[in-house]
Amino acid sequence: DLSVSTAEQYVQLVQDFCLNTGIRRQMDAFKSGFSRVFPLDNLYLFSADELQLLLCGDQAPSWSREDLLRHTEPKNGYTRDSPGYQMFLDVAAAMGPDERKSFIHFVTGTSSLPPGGLANLHPKLTVVRKHYENEHVLPSVNTCVHYLKIPEYHSQEILRERLLVACKEKGFHLN
User: Fold this and answer.
1) Which of 80, 95, 143, 162 is 20 to 30 A from 101, alpha carbon to alpha carbon?
2) At residue 171, does pLDDT exceed 90?
3) Is 144 in the active site?
4) Of 98, 80, 97, which is closest to residue 89 (Cα–Cα)?
5) 175 Cβ partners below 8 Å, 6+ apart?
6) Annotated catalytic residue: which of 18, 56, 144, 167?
7) Rounded to an integer, what distance in angstroms lies between the CA atom of residue 20 and that of residue 49?
């Protein structure tokens, strides 16, 4: 029976079950499969931060305007000199950490960039012009091929606001 006197023991048992005995089979299977790809004895070569980056990708993406210019590709109505593409570069370069994470999730469907950041995103992020005259239309994406469709907005402020709204949307209606 659970009581005040047995509460601490109960919490310890639940904790052990959730983090140890209850997932032992799954962890053993993961360990076995992982060791086929990379021997566990060699893990000592990496720090905890390096392992997290290798296994989970870049959880705090950072990039400069130059990185974006180098690792994105304008197409279908945009060129490197197009005002809409140039505004996109400025807006994306000015994003804060949480906005960048949301943006990456929006355009790729994943929560992080691969190790190496935008340079190792394959296929490359492609920015295309979405042909609409209405400035209330939101950007949309094709996450499988990292295809970002952006209307030609009249200002960076409108582009930023619409892009951040789109990044927060859930579901497939912006695909």
Assistant:
1) 80
2) no
3) yes
4) 80
5) 140, 141, 142, 143
6) 144
7) 23
Residue appearing with tokens 């990379």: 38
> pTM of the predicted model, to two decimals?
0.73
Sign of CA dihedral 100, 101, 102, 105: positive
For 73-78, the CB contacts below 8 A with 24+ separation are 73/124, 73/125, 73/126, 73/127, 74/126, 74/127, 74/128, 75/126, 75/127, 75/128, 76/128, 76/129, 77/128, 77/129, 77/131, 78/127, 78/128, 78/129, 78/150
Instruction: Please report where in the chains the tokens 């619409």 appear, as a residue.
Output: 162
Distances (CA, A) of 161 to 44, 87, 88, 137, 152: 45, 12, 12, 11, 13
Nearest Cα neighbor of 69 from 139, 151, 124 is: 124
Q: What is the pLDDT of residue 173?
A: 54
pLDDT of residue 26 exceeding 90, the answer is: yes
Q: Residue 140 contacts by C-beta under 8 Å, 6 or more apart in sequence? A: 130, 149, 166, 174, 175
Structure tokens, 29 = 């299977």
- The set of residues, in sequence order, having a beta carbon less than 8 Å from that of 132 and lying 6+ positions away, is 151
pLDDT at 175 over 90: no
User: Span 2-28, mean pLDDT?
Assistant: 93
What is the spatial distance between Cα 2 and Cα 6, in angstroms, rounded to a whole number? 6
